[in-house]
Amino acid sequence: MEIKVGDWVKSYSQGIWRAERKIENFYETRRSSNEPRTKSNRIIIISKRLVNDKWKTSFSVESCSLGFIQALSFEEQNTLNEFIRNNEKIMKDFEKFNKSLDLVLSFSFSIDDHIKTDFESYVNQLFSNKVEKGLTSDEIIEIIEKSKLNKYANKNPRNKTIQFISVNQEIEDSEFIYKNIIS
Fold first, then answer.
1. How far is CA 51 from CA 61, 142, 145, 165, in A?
2. Which among 93, 7, 86, 94 is positioned nearest to 46, based on CA atoms?
3. pLDDT of res. 152
4. Based on the domain organization, do 118 and 171 belong to the same domain?
5. Structure pTM?
6. In the chain, N or C: fewer CB atoms in 10 Å?
7. Do 68 and 12 contact (CB within 8 A), yes or no?
8. What is the rounded CA–CA span in Å between residue 43 and residue 65?
9. Order of strands across the sheet with 160-166?
């Protein structure tokens, strides 16, 4: 099914949604440089909900695979057209509604007790000047693998996490760009 930005659809969650953005031809996120670097064959649709399944105003934002998206039936499209005609204020509010849908990339570590207190400052030192400019997952992996964090990665029990945030799923050259960090 071909979905275009601006199409009214049914999404993964109940209600009537409008396709706001289509993300395709992007690299899958890796967690290690040993994993293959592959372009995704998935298409992600970011959509904004106008009403729930009871036709009550219910603004929200979500993303899901194109496979979960369905076109509206003829009857649903007619009901929607009538709703839009009869609810000018709601439609103006809907157009103004803007909520970021961020992508979070997490890395967990098993840090020794004697260095737990230094973890956050070390992470800030490693990434502070770099992440503000934007990093890809491969750049993040390279920094981790070249640092002393690497020996604590992918071990149990996991007791420390670093989260990198791609605000509104920003993409540049087919790569998600991460500009915020939480440790």
1. 12, 44, 46, 29
2. 7
3. 84
4. yes
5. 0.86
6. N
7. yes
8. 6
9. 103-109, 160-166, 180-182
Residue-wise pLDDT for 164-177, tens only, equals 999 999 999 999 99
Identify whether 3 is part of a domain.
Answer: no
Q: Give dist(CA 36, CA 142) in Å, integer.
A: 14
Question: What secondary structure letter does DSSP report for 181?
Answer: E
Sheet of strand 8-10: strand arrangement: 57-65, 44-51, 16-23, 8-10, 70-71
Which domain does 113 fall in, by range? 103-182
Place of tokens 């275009």: 4
In a domain, 2, yes or no: no
Give me the number of domains the chain comprises.
2
Identity at 34, one-letter amino acid code: N
The answer to whether residues 133 and 176 belong to one domain is yes
Phi (first) and psi of residue 122, to 5 degrees? -65, -45
